[in-house]
Amino acid sequence: MPSVRIPTPLRKLTGDLEVVQASGHTIAEVLHSLDQAFPGLKERICDDAGQVRRFVNVYINDEDIRFLEESATPVKEADEISIVPAIAGG
Amino acid sequence: MNSTSFFSNLKCRECGRLYPKQAIHVCDFDFGPLEAAYDYEAIGKVLSRKVIESRPQTMWRYRELLPIDGEPTVGTEVGFTPLIKADRLAKFLGIRELWIKNDTVNYPTLSFKDRVVSVALSRARELGFEVVACASTGNLANSVAANAAAAGLKSYVLIPADLEQGKVLGSLVYGTQVIGIHGAYDQVNRLCSEIAGKYGWGFVNVNLRPYYAEGSKSMGYEICEQLGWRLPQHTVVPMASGSLLTKIHKAYKEFIQLGIVDESPFHIHGTQATGCAPISHAIKRGTDIVKPVSKPETIVKSLAIGTPADGYYAIHSMKQTGGSAEDVTDEEVVEGIRMLAEYAGIFAETAGGVTVAGAKKLIQSGHIGANDSAVLCITGHGLKTQEAIVGQCGAPRLIAPSLREFEEKVYAPDAAAAV
User: Fold this and answer.
1) pLDDT recorded at residue B1
2) Is B124 helix (H, G, I), strand (E, B) or coil?
3) Given CB atoms, is B292 within the 8 Å cutoff of chain A?
4) Among residues A66, B135, B157, B243, which is most buried (max CB within 10 A)?
5) Range of weakest confidence among A1-10, A26-35, B41-50
6) What CA–CA distance (Å, rounded) separates B146 from A33?
7) Rounded CA gap, B356 and B338, in Å?
8) Is residue A61 part of a domain?
9) pLDDT in tens, A54-87
10) Would you call B349 an interface residue with chain A, using a CB distance cutoff of 8 Å?
């Protein structure tokens, strides 16, 4: 099962779990399965059209999915997914 | 003046949710950046050209449009730097009219960052902070250190360890805590974000960023006022996070909305160094998705931000105004610094070289018309980044203190006449 790393501001929704297991063969499916397990999580990560929000980054094994196939990016069993809010500064 | 009522809330730029005016910078819901919101109707009733002109020549003459509650207490003398008509440089670059907004002489630390720090630290005091800090590529560190020292606030500045000596010394001298990080700016930034979350310090460009960023608007207001209360046709702005460009755009829009300037077509262009040009490259690719640069490689350290926080908004400001982006090599940066010095008498840091060299390319490519008028935003002083040009401007000719040697080696009237 792919694992998903949850950032601090969203851990209220996962009962303080930092890493959770999810199922699915694409990022979209993984996010859907997360929302089944932790209702409300998906709307924090994705906009109404289902796209990952502008100031949220989703990485699969340290690669930003925006430079892969976005929410259609394939996910394998051993993959590690990270959800990381953008950082201000500069 | 009861100014509290003009600055109403913080507001998420993405979803519009409103937040109280605290030391917060990110929307709880969608992680979008928070921005200061104002009651423009109330401002319109009290702010006019005449009122502004009656006030001291500092950035605080636009007080109603800056996000603090009371009167400013830090950096009250900042801003209102010269706007210079640069005719010789205009001719050299092949443009009808050229202006330099010269923030190399901003008070007190010779860069535009004094504007943002003045607002951020005034607000930090209102919110009760005793320790202030920043993540910086140098200029911001200098300004936080100086202004905090003057205000009696304890400060920490966190910088990449490999910055120019002038920028490191230009922080140390104020007695601040200078922390050099073995890493690039983006890593410094990430660390500061963690420290801000854990210790509750006032980080000017992290948890105080909504206040800090608004300070940059004052550069846009001043440009309009100094042009005789009109919008410039073209504005060329260097980009690191992209924040300055978006805030100059906001300043122009606010002045139009308030009727302080008439609406006329204006174009905002952004420039970066090729070795770290994520925003410029996105524009050239025709997208608004900014691909981070993990290892910036350029002499322009002040613009070396690989993950620009306002990249998306900067791209949209340029698109909305019919502007464009350009990036320049390190060689072109040095050439730009020299052009500005030799044709306008202004010694700028590397970011200024980026702006001048970028403007040259934009004029050559026709993005800025040869018959148009442009303002170049020059944001920091050249004495801070001397390493960039050492050995590239020649060397003094050395002679003995003798008239004969002077005439033999330097200048002989007869020989000069014969030439």
Assistant:
1) 46
2) helix
3) yes
4) B135
5) A1-10
6) 52
7) 10
8) yes
9) 999 999 998 889 889 999 999 999 999 999 988 8
10) no
Q: DSSP 3-state assignment of B154?
A: strand
- Cα separation of B346 and A1, whole Å? 61
Q: What percent of chain B shows pLDDT beyond 70? A: 97
Residue A69 forms part of a structural domain: yes
Q: Which helix (H) or strand (E) holds B320?
A: helix B311-320
* d(C-alpha B295, C-alpha B304), whole Å: 9
**pLDDT tens across A31-59, in order?**
999 999 999 999 999 999 888 999 999 99
The ranges assigned to domains in chain B are 7-77+113-212, 83-109+216-388
Rounded to whole angstroms, the Cα distance separating B280 from B152 reads: 40
Q: Give A-chain residues touching B206 at CB under 8 angstroms.
A: 88-89
Read off the CATH number of the domain in which A12 is found: 3.10.20.30
CB-based contact A53 B206, cutoff 8 Å: no
For B191, which residue in chain A has the nearest alpha carbon? A87
List pLDDT tens digits, range B114-141. 999 999 999 999 999 999 999 999 999 9
Domain count, chain A: 1
ipTM attached to this prediction = 0.88
> Is A88's Cβ below 8 Å from some Cβ in B?
yes
A25 domain residue, yes or no: yes
Looking at 3.40.190.10, 3.40.50.1100, 3.90.1330.10, 3.90.1030.10, the CATH number of the domain B7-77+113-212 comes to 3.40.50.1100
> In the prediction, which pLDDT does B3 show?
47
Residues in chain A with CB shorter than 8 Å from the CB of B242 are 90
Per CATH, which fold does B83-109+216-388 belong to? Rossmann fold (3.40.50)
Q: Please answer whether residues B40 and B254 qualify as being in contact, where contact means their C-beta atoms are separated by less than 8 angstroms.
A: yes
Q: Which chain A residue has the Cα nearest residue B33?
A: A88
Residue with structure tokens 């976005």? A70
Give the residues across from B34 on adjacent strands. B12
For residue A86, which amino acid is it?
A
Q: How far apart are CA B280 and CA B283, in angstroms?
A: 5
Of B31, B135, B242, the CB nearest to A86: B31
pTM equals 0.95
Nearest to A87 among B14, B28, B193 (CB): B193
Equal CATH topology for B7-77+113-212 and B83-109+216-388: yes
The residue written with tokens 């990036």 in the block is B327
A-chain CB neighbours of B289 within 8 Å are 66
Q: Which amino acid is at B76?
A: T
Cβ-contact B261, B229 below 8 angstroms: yes
Q: Write out chain B residues lying below 8 Å of A56, CB-based.
A: 30-31
HSE-up of B359 (CA within 13 Å, CB side)?
35
Residue for token pair 């001298």 = B173
Of B188, B190, B191, whose CA–CA distance to B163 is shortest? B188
CB pairs under 8 A between A and B: 67
Distance CA B224, CA B83 (A): 10
